[in-house]
């Protein structure tokens, strides 16, 4: 596994006691994960966001069934960041039936890009919002946070970045957890280096009583 940087890129989560190590390599980690069955559903494997980073309508609609966008255990999405085509793979090491309102819920992702030159991921951020069964807003609970690294990680395919965010406990009435993912990239070199942003939204239904 070839690392693209010798410096660690860490994401802090307010619900954990330590840092979460993130890696960049040429072989995405989900290839050996138990969630491979999700790749057999190509209809769930693509959604897009605009060049400005706005999430797609389909991605931002709350799901009515438990599991939602992660019901198959893993999900592939394609979003855009300016001229970059960004591939994002999501999965969790915690079974979706254990994604209760009061639990700490690990969300892993892997990111790679097509297009541009010398593309590097310099910021990854996750924010959550909670919805009750009737769609009303609830207190969002602990926020996973973000980390910025000016030098970032090379993510032009076949290279990729991967990391895990821990989504904190929310109100006990939470039926749907909406997760907003923001990815900031730089591309080019020297004075001509530019910045592009991609945003994606996941909707995950949580187990509820009744």
From TrEMBL:
The keyword Signal applies. Keywords: Signal. PROSITE patterns: PROKAR_LIPOPROTEIN, TAT. The keyword Signal applies. Residues 44-66 have a biased composition (Low complexity). It comes from the Bacteria. Residues 1-21 form the signal peptide. This is Lipoprotein LpqN. It comes from Curtobacterium luteum.
